[in-house]
Design brief:
This protein has about 170 residues and is an alpha+beta fold. It folds into two domains: about 40 residues, no CATH class; about 110 residues, Lipocalin (Beta Barrel), CATH 2.40.128. It has three helices and eight strands; from the N terminus they run ααββββββββα. β4 and β5 form a beta hairpin. The longest helix is centred in the first third of the chain and has 30 residues. The termini are far apart.
Length: about 170
Amino acid sequence: MKLTGDVRRLVLVTMNIRRHIITVLVVVSLIATAYGCRTRPICILHGVPHTFSAAEVAGLWMGFSPIHTDLYRLELQSDSKGILTQAYTSMTNQQTLRFEISRWDIATNNVLTCSFTPHDLHEPVIMTCEVKGDRLEALLRNGEDGWKENIVFWRERDLDEKLRVIRQ
């Protein structure tokens, strides 16, 4: 079967269009893979967020409750243990409570989880924090149906520096 000139040109144009479509699909696939496409509608425009390591999160943090006047100091040790200290102020007295963190770890979605060793029913059981780089946005809980406390933690050294600047 012999193709006429018009049919031959149509076949060549169709093959060119297919080749361009395949090239574009390959390029889009490579870009999506390179940028870590996730479940977003326009995923090639959003890079993968930084995943914080345990070493980046370990250290001293100072926390404040947006509702109460309590202050917190969070010490995340490199051995995945730590201490949460609460400076509790009530109408009648002030006291400091220390809670032992039996284990902490950070997941790939930048959620830090601290598990506590409670000694009575009123102590915290778990704290989950969204790691935002310079701060931790935490929810301290006493079990599923127990009390809950929102805390925002800032690096202790950063707060010290900011206080030094303000005092000048």
